[in-house]
Write a structure and sequence with these properties.
- It comes from Podospora appendiculata.
- By secondary structure, the protein is of the alpha/beta class.
- It contains twelve helices and eight strands.
- It is globular.
Length: 399
Amino acid sequence: MTSALPEDYENISPDDVFIPVIGLTGSGKSRFISLCIGEEYDENDDSDAPLPGATGFKVHSFEHCGRTVHLIDTPGFDQPGREDHEVLQECVYWLSKSFEAGIKVTGMVYTYPIDLMRLPGSARRALQMFKAMCGIQNAPSTVMATTMWDKVERDVGEERVDTLAEEQDFWGDFYDAGSHILPVLSDQRSALKIISLILGSSSGLTLQIQKQMLVEKMMLHQTDAGKVLYGNIMTEKHALEDEIDEIKRSMQEQLGQAARQDQVLRLEEMARAKNDKLETRVAAVQEIQKTKDDLTVMWDIRVRDDMRRMRLELLRNQEHLQDLEDSLAGRATNGAYQERKEREELERELKRMRKKVEMLQKENRFGATAGVLLTGGKVVGGGLGVAAAIIPLVACCIM
């Protein structure tokens, strides 16, 4: 993983390419990005797992066809322990900040696991939100990258691609408007083909979500993407309210019939559980009724807090790394069997910790870039106009 932008910010070029990669959690985003940048992907490696509560954006940069490409690895929809409205908020925050800094996305990639037999409600909703964020006018600069081809027979996968391209509720409307569906196989060539296609399709987009929130000043729930999520939240809220009313009626009936105490207690427990869930839906409604300025204030604070947390995590892990190196240095290389096993275990832990420290160092550079956006860096005359005075402000954001 590389920093959000190259470390020498003034060398950012107007020719640089920014491509957000969006999809469900576990849809193959990381595998696609690893293929693009030429790094080995290990699905069991958790060294770059996000810190608890950390913002979910990471940016991976590489050279392709004479241009610097920045792949924006976004937090996944349908993420365990995280509401979709929070993921949408963060996407809007990043897209707003980058747009205001003069950075336009070149295209958008949506990763779709071809082994998905059916499109569950969460997957359908995420797909609809992606399309609504982009706007059908930008369809020619979007790609559905189908992943997980090693988990299906080829003819089965091809049938599913046909369905995606034909069904208007899936990808058919975008496909008819000029979008593409391309496979991500096990080779780098298939991934870079997607990048090459986007490079030739656009010089910079204004996404529908950017136009609606930044130009038309809509609130998030009024945007096309927000409506997809808002409608689902309201449907869940009304369903819970109906269920709670039904439980209350049952309780009244049971009390009128001198029901057993255990039956009444069971209904009370059901009512409490439904009320707890209803409270989360009411909170979600409030969280999606936000302006761009509301989101900026809220997420600026979160980004600064995450930078401080990453800095502390980096320092702790550097200390742990030094302890491991000191311990390993004191071990004999030709000792007894048990000592050799202990040394091998230390070497494995040392390797893992070195990778984690490297990741955190890069995360801190990403944080510096976020700080540049927070302090108002602009793309001017071929680069980010990052005055020397901005750098101390960035440092304050992450310490």
